[in-house]
UniProtKB/TrEMBL annotation:
One of its GO terms (biological process) is fatty acid beta-oxidation. This is 3-hydroxyacyl-CoA dehydrogenase. The keyword NAD applies. SUPFAM superfamilies: 6-phosphogluconate dehydrogenase C-terminal domain-like (SSF48179), NAD(P)-binding Rossmann-fold domains (SSF51735). Residues 212-312 form the 3-hydroxyacyl-CoA dehydrogenase C-terminal domain. It comes from Coemansia reversa (strain ATCC 12441 / NRRL 1564).
Amino acid sequence: MKISSLRKHAFTSSAITQSDIRRVTVIGSGQMGSGIAQVAAMKQHEVTLVDVNQEALERGKGYMSKSLKRVAKKKFPEDAKAQNQFVEKALGHVTLSTNASKSVSNAGLVVEAVVENLKAKQNIFVKLAMEAPDNAILASNTSSLPIAKIAAPLTLSQRKRFIGLHFFNPVPQMKLVEVVRSDEVDQKTVDDAVAFVKSIGKTPAVCKDTPGFIVNRLLLPYMMESIRLLESGVASARDIDTAMKLGAGYPMGPFELCDYVGLDTIKFIVDGWYKEGAGLKGNKLFESSKKLDELVQAGSLGVKSGKGFYDY
Ligand SMILES: NC(=O)c1ccc[n+]([C@@H]2O[C@H](COP(=O)([O-])OP(=O)(O)OC[C@H]3O[C@@H](n4cnc5c(N)ncnc54)[C@H](O)[C@@H]3O)[C@@H](O)[C@H]2O)c1
C-alpha cells in the first residue's frame, strides 16, 4: 500500500551527503523496523518500509499508527485535529513495499531489521548492496551478531559503508542508538551514521564490534549474577529487585528486566558467548545457571509467556 510516492534521484558514486541520507529504506517491518521507520518519518525523512508480504506491512503500519497516536496525544492534549494531522503527516513520509530491490534503488541509508539469523541477513545485504546506490550506507540493527560477520560476503567498498545501528525496544521511547564500527568501516560512514542518529532525535554511543556492544555486554553479567545471588539463597527476587531500584536508582530490578527481555533470549545470548564469544569464551560470568535452565525448559520465559521469575 502506498502512503506517499517515491521520489527518484540520480546517484553518482561521490560521497554521500546528509540530504541523501534523508532517504531511508528499512528492511523488516516488525517491532524494531516499524519503530525505526516511525522515528525517521517523524523527523521528515522519506522512509520506505519493506517486508516479505502485505500482511506483515499492514501489521507494521498498525504498530506505527498506534504509537504515533500515543505521541500525538501527549504532544497535543485536548486537540484531536492536531493529533490527527501529526499522525497523518508522519505516515505520509512512509511508503510500504514488498519490493526490496526497487526500494533501495535511491536510498541513502538502508537499515536491516529482519530476524536475528546470520544467513538471512547476509543474503539480504549481498543482494541489496548491489541494487542500492554505490555510496549508500548499509546498516544492521542486529543485537547479537558480529557486524563484520554479517558484512563478510560483501566487497571491500561495501564493507567500508557497513555499520551497526543498534536501536532499543521500544524504539520511539528509547533514546539510545549504539553505532557499531567494525575494523573495516571508514570514518565518514561512522560520522554520517552518528549525524543520522542525531537527526532522528536519538543519542548515539559509538563502540567497537564486540559481543553485546556496550549495553548488553554490561547488562548480561548483571542479570546472571542476580540469578546466582537468588540461587545461593542470599535474598528473594523481590528483595533483590527492591534493593537495586531503591539502592542503585535503577528503574527496574534485574528480575523484572529478565522477565521483560525474555529468559530464552538471555539464555540464547549467554550460551553463545560462553561457547564462542570473542574474548568471552569460557568466562564464568556468562555460564548459564540451573535456575535459568529450568525456567526456560518449563516454558517460563517471562512477560511474553505469562510466567518467569514472576507471574503476569
Ligand atoms: N526486539 C528487540 O527487543 C530488539 C532490540 C534490538 C535489536 N533487535 C534486533 O532487530 C531485528 C528485528 O527484531 P524484531 O524484534 O523487530 O523482529 P520481528 O520478528 O518483530 O520482525 C522481523 C520482521 O522481518 C521480516 N522479514 C524476515 N525476513 C525478511 C526479508 N528477507 N525481507 C524483508 N523482511 C523480512 C519479518 O516478516 C518480520 O516482519 C533482529 O535482528 C533483532 O535481534 C531486536
